[in-house]
Amino acid sequence: MKILNLINERTFARLSVLCEEEGIQLSPKLENMLGEASVARVLRAGEQLEAWIRHCMRNGETVRYYKLISRCKMEQAAVCALEMCLTVLQYQELNEIFQKLGYSGVTLELVMLVEAVGRGDYPKESFIEAERIFAQISSVLGHKLEQIPFYRYPLKADERLMGYLLGSDLLDKRLNGCAEQYFYELQSPDLLTGHEKAAEITDALMPRMDGIQNLLQITGEKGSGRKTLLKYACHNAQLNILLMDYSLLCVNAPLVRREMLWIARRELIFYEMGICFYGLEDSECCATKQERREFLKNCVEPLLGSDVVVCMNTLPKTEFISLLKPYLYRIDIPVLTRDDRIEVWEGCAKRYHLKMDCVSTAIKFKLTTEEICKAAVRLAISGQKEPDSAAIARVCAEVLEPAAQGNIKLVRSGYTLDDLKLPVEQKQQLHNICAHVWQRHKVFDEWNMESRFAYGRNVSALFVGPPGTGKTMAVHVLADMLEIPLYRIDISQIVDKYIGETEKRLEEVFNTAEKNNAILFFDEADSIFGKRSEVNEAKDKYANTEVSYILQRMEEYDGIVILATNYKKNIDEAFMRRIRYLVEFTLPSEDIRRQIWESSFAPEVPLEDVNFEYLARQFELAGGNIKNIVLNAVFKAASEGQPVGMLHILESIRTENLKMGRKMITQDFAEYGVLLDYKR
Q: Nearest Cα to 621, choosing from 474, 477, 466?
């Protein structure tokens, strides 16, 4: 408060002299407040203020008032304006003096009158310097919003300016929610990965000797840790920075937005900060080239020519270099590799004292740095210090963004390997697919097989077999074994008659799956992965183009793709060459059919004399047909209030065969045919 008292004393002394020279009649209260009218008192007050500043600096104390006027290179008139505005903020009754002098408040015209009064050297030529002085004070006192002469523009100090001078570091409340301060001395971010990129950003932030302004664009996918890397680099470069969310800034009206940008620029002056704009991808304000020009015009160009470091955090596709004359340093943050993900998981496990298999988790879940940190926090809060694979899978699914609706649908898997009744060979194939996922890190990274396979590293499988043989259930079982989400592709929503639309929708599907670490399941795959034909018409050419696009995209896709079809011969040969695993599903053997019959009834269902050996031997049915028969029989028995018996099952078998176009006679039921004859 000492500094404000000294500032107020000099302002009171100046106004007292001005009122005496101008013959202004004051109320007793104001006369008592202003005190003695003498030029000597003005000079004495100035000397006391300067002496106090020197005293503080000798003692190693920071005087924010002195640093502020130094940074803005304020001349004496600008300093006078600053002091008057600070005093008026505390003593509103002083406005009575300005009104009597014919001013609406503290203006540059009035300030120059006050600053020169008592010296007898107030030539008209002083106004030649007015524009320069206004530029010096407007950066901290206000900016021109109205079409009035700048020298009559009312200047005002606000609570944030006074709070800053008194030592407060609370951000201006008008920026709450859309900006945050980062002070390198107070915060030391813990960097889990990306130290090389952090060093590159640090170099880009360091002051340049060639006079080129530091303009920096950091690009990366959402959640790639751009802000954390920047904070870490700022800590190393000893740079304070203001992080501003451009998407929230854009929701305001233009005048409010302009005021908020001015407030932000003032914060940069207060602390000699740099500024980073982020959230450009979250708003539609930078979607077009013209909108990006507007962003540069409003946010970046006003800072050019100063020593302010300007940074932009964007997606990789956002391009600014061609729109800027100054040099723009672009640093791209790559997608995390498996080794990077392991490093982040291990860092988070150490931070939150979690005992978990970080390697297998990093291999299975292709999360970003931000998502891994969120998942680790959720595990820590849950109290599970040694989380099992199911808990890890659950939290990883929770932190992922939901998949796009319409083209792709999340399927909840309720089947396990025990539910799947298949021969040993087919089950081994499913284990092989899982091993391909589990052992990726060892094969591609530790054994460096990635150097031999630049593309085509995805896990792809084709499930072939008649309807009802367990293809779809096997996909569910895979999702359960791997503990990753399963997404079924709605082919009807993908294929479009308009040229290029099918490819566009497929691209959305693959992008969603990559971000969500999902199994992509294409049922009835021959409708979209079918054979290419000879080009006889224009439509044949575009149909072949779609197939070629899918071939290329599947090779680039780093995930799991499962195709299911009833007819292997309908799949294009080029797809077959790219398929990693082929699993053929056949009609089940008698032993497998018996297992399916027995496992289809829940333990709670009452059964009466059901002959599973007879059912498995007598009827060559697919597993899907058996499931339908069992469910129909259970409903029949429930409606009659009886246990499920052979008659209920046999009637359901006859109904199921009729559905498939096969009419059954008594002899088809062998020794149990008499039951049906009796029922008739």
A: 466
Q: Which residues contact 301 (CB under 8 A, 6 or more apart)?
A: none
Name the nearest CA neighbour of 435 among 560, 577, 557: 560
Give the angle 560-563-566 at the CA atoms, nearest 5°: 160
Taking a C-beta distance cutoff of 8 angstroms, is the pair 69, 53 a contact? no
DSSP string, 223-253: TS-HHHHHHHHHHHHT--EEEEEHHHHTTS-
What percent of the chain lies above the pLDDT cut of 90? Answer: 35
Are the CB atoms for 596 and 623 separated by under 8 Å? yes
* Contact status, residue 298 vs residue 400, Cβ threshold 8 Å: no
Which of 115-124, 143-152, 357-366 reaches the highest mean pLDDT? 357-366
| Contact yes or no for 234/182 (Cβ under 8 A) | yes
CA distance 522 to 565: 9
Q: How many CB atoms lie within 10 A of CB 32?
A: 9
E-assigned strand segments in 555-601: 560-565, 581-584
DSSP characters over 76-118 = HHHHHHHHHHHHHHH-GGGHHHHHHHT-SSB-HHHHHHHHHTT
Its sign, for the CA torsion 231, 237, 238, 240, is negative
State the pLDDT confidence band at 541, using cuts at 50, 70 and 90.
Answer: very low
62 closest CA partner among 273, 270, 274, 308 = 270
- Is residue 543 a contact partner of residue 533, using CB atoms and an 8 Å limit? yes
Q: How far are the Cα atoms of 11, 13, 39, 678 from residue 49, in angstroms, in the given order? A: 12, 13, 16, 115
Measured CA to CA, the distance from residue 565 to residue 525 in angstroms comes to 6
What pLDDT does residue 364 have? 83
- For 230, the token pair is 């920047």
Strand pairing partners for 608? 645
Tell the burial category of 363 from Cβ atoms under 10 Å away from its Cβ (0-12, 13-18, 19+). Answer: buried
**H/E segment holding residue 678:** helix 673-679
Tokens 């097989």 correspond to what residue?
449
C-alpha closest to that of 467 among 567, 543, 566, 553: 566
Count of Cβ atoms closer than 10 Å to residue 284 Cβ: 11
| 135-141-146 Cα angle (round to 5) | 75
HSE-up (13 A, CA, CB side) for residue 81: 31
Residue at token pair 């791209």:
332
- Start-end of H helices in 400-537: 424-438, 440, 471-482, 491-494, 501-516
Instruction: Give the confidence band of 531 by pLDDT, cuts at 50, 70, 90.
Output: low
In this predicted structure, the answer to whether residue 182 has a pLDDT above a threshold of 50 is yes
3-class secondary-structure state, position 155: strand
In single-letter form, the type of residue at position 534 comes to E
What the block records as the tokens of 127 is 């106004």
Give residues with Cβ within 8 angstroms of 536, minimum separation 6. none
Structure tokens at 66: 């002195």
The answer to whether the CB of 618 falls within 8 A of the CB of 666 is no
Q: Give the tokens for residue 506.
A: 């497929």
Instruction: Give 242's strand partners.
Output: 181, 275
CB within 8 Å of 400: residues ≥ 6 apart? 367, 371, 485, 515, 516, 517
The two structure tokens encoding residue 189: 């971010």
Q: Rounded to an integer, what distance in angstroms lies between the CA atom of residue 236 and that of residue 118? A: 51
Between the CA of residue 632 and those of 68, 600, 637, what are the distances in Å?
A: 83, 12, 9
SS (H, E, C) 205-217: HCCCCCCCCCEEE
**Beta bridge partner(s), residue 244:** 179, 277
Q: How many angstroms separate the CA atoms of 325 and 339, rounded?
A: 39
Can you tell me whether residue 148 is helix, strand or coil? coil
